[in-house]
């Protein structure tokens, strides 16, 4: 597995890097046979250390975890514990997903835009109804089943996931509702 362990404006020592590699190898090895790479970023937020970890699995799924602590090692340990819990929760489905799928998850390319926030002052009228584009990026839309999409959203800790439905070949959305349930948007095809 390839590792990218870095710090945002803090130095990461060799001991911490080897500790992170050993721990992630143990955690991911228990649940997923072939992880491809891991990205771990340490940063500081006021008096706390923040650890964010993303592990890309060979099936195309990603596992994401984030944790805070007063010291850097406990921040990583809490992050690793969250990742372990996520992988344990989805262990059976991850193994079934790998067995059912002969090819890795297919991804479609798409453009992603960041729009400027509008001023909400009541005195000014908007000059135009067109939003201002702040940034444009490339993003990937995975081709998944609905169950896989829900699992991917949960593993990534995301509130919403746009995916291409493998059975219907159309774009779908799954999202976490305020009541704790999962919502699924499946537009009707106009044929």
TrEMBL record:
Domain Sigma 54 modulation/S30EA ribosomal protein C-terminal stretches: 130-183
**Localisation per UniProt entry:** Cytoplasm
- What keywords are annotated for this sequence in UniProt? Cytoplasm, Translation regulation
Entry similarity comment: Belongs to the HPF/YfiA ribosome-associated protein family. Long HPF subfamily.
Question: Its GO CC terms?
Answer: cytosolic small ribosomal subunit
Residue stretches spanning the membrane = none
Quaternary arrangement and interactors, per the entry?
Associates exclusively with 100S ribosomes, which are dimers of 70S ribosomes.
Against InterPro entries, the record matches this protein to: HPF/YfiA_ribosome-assoc, HPF_long/plastid, RHF-like, RHF/RaiA, Ribosom_S30AE_C, Ribosom_S30AE_C_sf
- Name the lineage: Bacteria, Pseudomonadati, Pseudomonadota, Alphaproteobacteria, Rhodobacterales
Q: Which organism is it from?
A: Seohaeicola zhoushanensis
**Secretion signal: which residues?**
none
What is the protein name given in its UniProt record?
Answer: Ribosome hibernation promoting factor
Q: Which GO terms describe its biological process?
A: negative regulation of translational elongation
Gene3D superfamilies per record? Ribosome hibernation promotion factor-like, Sigma 54 modulation/S30EA ribosomal protein, C-terminal domain
